[in-house]
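Forwarding the complex inputs:
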Amino acid sequence: MSDSSTAATTIDGRRAGAATLRWRLSALRGYPIVPIAIITITALVAIFADYIAPHNPEVGLLGQRFKPPVWQAGGIEGHLLGTDHLGRDVLSRLIFGARVSMIVGFMAVIVAGVIGTALGIVSGYLGGWVDQVIMRLTDTWLALPAITFAIFLAAIVGPSFMNIVVILGAVFWTRYARIIRGEVLSLKEREFVRLAIVANCTKLAIMRRHILPNVLNTAIVLATLQLGVVIIAEATLSFLGVGVPPPQPAWGLMLADGKKGMMAGYWWLTVMPGTCIALMVLSANLLGDWLRVKLDPQLRQL
Amino acid sequence: MSPAPLLELDGLTTHYVSARGTRVVPAVEDVSLRLDAGETLGIVGESGSGKTTLALTILRLLPPAARIIRGAIRFQGEDLVPKSDAEMRRIRGKRIAMILQDPMASLNPLFSVGEQVAEPIRIHEGADRRSAWTRARDLLKAVKISAPDTRVREYPHQLSGGMRQRIVGAIAISCGPRLLIADEPTTSLDVTIQAQYLNLLRELQRTHGLALIFITHNLGIVAKMCDRIAVMYAGRLVESGPVTTIFDAPAHPYTRALLESIPRMDDGNRRLTAIDGQPPDLAAPPPGCSFHPRCPDVMDRCRAEAPPAFAVAREQTARCWLAAPATVRS
Amino acid sequence: MKRFLVKRITYSVLSLFLLSAIIFFFVRVTGDPAVLLVEPGASQADIDAIREQLGLNRSLGVQYVTFMSDLLRGDFGKSFYYRSPVLDLYLSRLPNSFLLAGVAMLFSLVVGIPSGILAAVRLNGWWDRVGKIFALLGQSLPSFWVGLLLILFFSVHLGWLPSSGSGTIWHVLMPAVALGWVFAAYNMRLTRSSMLEVLGSEYVKLARLKGLPEALVIAKHAFKNALIPVLTLAGINLVIMVNVAIVVETVFAWPGVGRLAYEGIAFRDFPVVQATVVLGGAMIVVVNLLVDILYAVIDPRIRYER
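Prediction (whole assembly, three chains):
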């Protein structure tokens, strides 16, 4: 069957198709396909969870508690990865749990990035005592132990979806501030900034229109590098019981529940959610590393 | 019949090859020279001319990306090129020694200077700690370090730059080598210390009968210290011969330009002459003679063909078409 | 030297004040402190009483002064659950955390340093590639999951090791591995890059020029110098471990300050949570100060800078 998209006429249509495919694939070389694929798939799963999940993640049949995955003896059809201590389907909970990890992860990274970048720009550009104060604040904030500080904040404002996002943002913004400030310090000396000053632009305008776009690259790289850390932090908070509140499924929460069944040998309740977390974080880290090399070689020291 | 040379390089060629073999940088190309026992040879050139690579090639201490492509290194009659690593290790430090440029960086900050001087003695001659230590102390005396008994226990950061370079010198002569290679040993020293150090080197050379290869970009040092000179440009040896002959009558335009660029005290208000242009990118050298883009006497032939080395006078050779005998020139 | 010391210590003291100010801000300004600082299940009357007692109706400045003076006197409040001063609770648990962190640090150094050196010496070789994967995994696997997996395998499946509690060396093994795992990967990377830098240095070159056997060059000249950054950072990392151990201690029911913080959350014992943050942060500030002073003592150049 001839394929109209193939360029050359060939005796063996199949061979030309394979060659085109190989040529197209080679253009992808150098891109971290697997991490991007994993993240994209997880995102899609999170968005379409309602349609993909085979069961209701929040309701379970008590008669079907602690059923192992399908391939093990005792597994039930329809529950591919088994059930938990309340008879809820593990696979469905994993699928819905992806929502929490992805949304909280991305949003928290954005919140942290916005705060950190803003402070970095202001501190670097304005200099003087503003710089000193902000840097002092950043250094001290960095000394605060991350998870402990997060649960401290959670104890104060109470855990909810948005609260967790803001809390994680409040914990992780410091990583951005220093680095962005460094960038701004060198950007300050560049021609186009000086021209803007001569042209009587206000400080705010310069920071917004000239400095900000130029540090965006670095900020994005930092954000992807942070994503893994934030996801683990969210899982940790859920595990400790101060994450997104039940009945919303979260991978960390599943691990906490799974611990109860662990001593009896119900291994899938621990292995499955943890593997999801690990895959997500691994992909985020690989993507972050690749982006760092691609976009900003100067950050290699990170 | 002159006695066999101590060191003879024959068409030595070293290239840096990129990981996939795609980029080749000819760092040292077809270098031939000879050095007799007790002689001092000065190797002169701009940075990037290949002088350090040449020294490292002789010692077979090249980084993994570099390879000896061709040629022979005959030291005391033996060719060093095919020697194994283990064999070379017995030669380094014992029969051929080297001094590096930055004395602070050359000495390990965590060990005392005595320990570092004694080390090669213990390794090469199997001496025990005490006798090695005694010899280390004697060596410190030999390089004119005051209060050697206390100094021997001190650490590098406690000594001045000049003293550190002397320690490096002590390390070099510790096992009685026949050849000492000094790679810009005075460049990081104060001007006032430089002359002292050079005198020390000369004295050590005389006392121990060393042959000395002096790598430098400073023609003044060459004039003071060296018997012979070899000028390198873009990896090739463009001129070589006795110092007096070459300083009087340089045959290669590059050598001439180098000599002319030295400011003189008696010249009044003459402007300093510099050589136009930049040394070539060794990864993509110009065709023909690599100096031709900067040469004031360039001819058509120079642009097309790289000249071989021609004998200009007794023991003086130059790699230049201008030095070719009349019959060959056109 | 004195100038440097004074400057540096003032810096740290300022940080400590700032730290407590941040905590103070979050408690008094963003939450309703009366609710937090009262036992769970208290009546409205109790809440009002607390408000009076703690002077929460007075101005923020006055409140802060009282807060700070309490802290400086060592009064971090009383635990609702344990009914004893929080500071005493914290200090009694701290040695356990340091014990766990110590073993974990040992583990991370024993695993990290040799593999880092091997990776550097055989650059891009098989071991280097394994090392890179190990480093990636170290960053990506949450420590508490590693702990859970260890329990699953060694306690449940094999029955070799106890899954919780403390007391014998068998109790400390798994939590130490779970805690130290991330740091092992970090130490490996640090050792590798430090070793690479040292291997490219002039004194290593000179050592080779002396004709020393390669093994001696690496073991004697390169090794010690490469270790310097790793060991100095080990001090700071130890304290970081104590702070990060909260989850591992929870998983293994290890009686350290991390588990104390978890109890604070589980039992709604707010004074405990607050104290853990302040003291945890203070420890980091202090250890940073100590390490900087240590550096200054070792390397004279730092003292005279600025």
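Residues 191-208 of chain B form the longest helix (18 residues).
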